[in-house]
Amino acid sequence: MVLLLLTVTVAGAVPALNWFLVSPNELLIKTMCQTPNKIDTLLNTYATFNLRLPYSYFSAKNLKRYKALHQRTLYLLRHGEIATPGILTGKTDVALSDKGLRELWKTSQQLPEMSYCISSPLQRCRMFATEYALKCNINLELDERLKEMDFGDWDGRAYTDLWEIKSSKLQSSIGGFWQNPWDHTPPNGETMDNFVQRVDTWWQNWLTIGPKGNTLVVAHGGVIKHLIARVLALPIPGTTHMSNIDIPYAKFVKVTVHTDEQGDDWPKIVW
Q1: Is there a contact between 81 and 250 (Cβ–Cβ < 8 Å)?
Q2: Which of 132, 158, 212, 252 sits a CA distance of 20 to 30 A from 177?
Q3: Do 223 and 53 contact (CB within 8 A), yes or no?
Q4: ω into residue 181 within 30 of 0, thus cis?
Q5: Strand pairing class (265-270; 140-142)
Q6: Class of 72-270 in CATH
Q7: Is residue 107 within 8 Å of 77, Cβ to Cβ?
Q8: Residue 50 to residue 38: CA distance in whole angstroms
């Protein structure tokens, strides 16, 4: 067996790790579950000795079985009230109001112990996420894919002004956008296809490599609504989740993800 011969050439440098690698997969998987970073330790150790272990050994079946040994939970938390209410905020980087920050800390008291935090880099999410991660002594990751939709020329403008814009062949209206954003893109703004693609990319990436335990995600209303639509398998393209789901400021949605023995993920919303 090539793998066994390679481990012998390392001699006694890493005897405990050698045994894990050449032993049955069940023990390897058990070890990985007990110490999630073990697989990184194994790979890095063997890379040091210029050993080329086949990637497939750690991927596919073994990785799926490793994931199946634990359940992960996401807490999708919308940012609090903004300091400049009455405007359409997508890419516009507005701050939280004092009330908005207080609401987030109040809501955080309902959360269990978190092991990781991910946030949109926009300050209405990042402000609280940074303070929360420091307080709880957990890692914080900022991810561009969790930003709110870019509303183009409408972004940052007052709703009262936007409702005055009439739909025409040359431009969409905000009324048309709220009714069907797939057919009415804000001028110079992000299309729904692009918005969905980037949020879906984040979701699939998290399902693949997201850490076990509880993860807090501080994001925006549009992002959270789309993730709910994916969990509930609502039709996309579609508008059901946009018009029939409301995520108030500083409120969260709990999503548990169970991975079965075949490596398939089964997310569900827990109320």
Answers
A1: yes
A2: 252
A3: no
A4: no
A5: unpaired
A6: alpha beta
A7: yes
A8: 19
Among the listed ranges 59-73, 175-189, 192-206, which one has the minimum average pLDDT value? 59-73
Picking from 108, 112, 110, 102, the residue whose alpha carbon sits closest to that of residue 132 is: 108
Is the C-alpha dihedral spanning 108, 112, 115, 118 positive or negative?
negative
Q: Say which residue the tokens 């039709």 belong to.
A: 235
* CA 213 to mean position of chain CA atoms: 14
On the question of pLDDT at 110 being above 80, the answer is yes
Per-domain residue ranges of the chain: 2-67, 72-270
Pairing between strand 140-142 and 72-78? unpaired
Burial (Cβ within 10 Å: 0-12, 13-18, ≥19) of residue 142: middle
Task: In whole angstroms, give the CA distance from residue 165 to residue 101.
Answer: 33
88 near 155, Cβ under 8 Å? yes
Number of helices and strands (H, E) in the chain?
12, 6
Per DSSP (E only), the strands in the chain are 72-78, 116-119, 140-142, 213-219, 252-259, 265-270
- Token pair, residue 115, equals 């092991």
N- to C-terminal Cα separation, the chain:
51
Report residue 263's pLDDT band, with 50, 70 and 90 as the boundaries. Answer: confident
**Which pLDDT tens digit goes with each residue over 161-176?**
999 988 776 778 888 8
Residue 239 identity: T
DSSP at 58: T
